[in-house]
Fold this protein.
Amino acid sequence: MSEFTYAEFTPGSLADELRVDGRCRELLQRFHQWLLTQRQLPSVEAGALAAGTDYLLRDFLLDHCRENVLDLSARRLRQFGGTWYILKNLEPNLPELRRSLQGAAHFAVFAQELGLMTATAAAEIAEAAADEAWYASRIDSFHAITDDGYPAWERGCSLDDVGRVR
């Protein structure tokens, strides 16, 4: 049985967000240990994947979307990597994004093992994370935007349904 529950990761008031953020840090520390012990990844790789997952969960899902981090889905992962990450970074690039994508795939398995995510959701996240050619094309097409091409680019992976837009 997991020491974590779905409900404790649901943000609400500012006090809730601070509490959820703290629990999310604890979950990510446990995830990092899981990468080291269960996946037997080298420390540097486990740390990079955990850091990439932290960025996805805490900065995008929790802070930007104001959503429960355990509601990570293939759609949200695509929105993160295909639009939000690109807009929030000065020099978006696939090697850096890859840490979050691969981390998300591992995190989904970890959450599934804790009973916090379904096998279906974990498989869909892994499939979305593996589609690196799509993420690379989003980065490349962003850099190629000219004139008034931004709206068309954004519609290719819109953030319209995200909780709040900054």
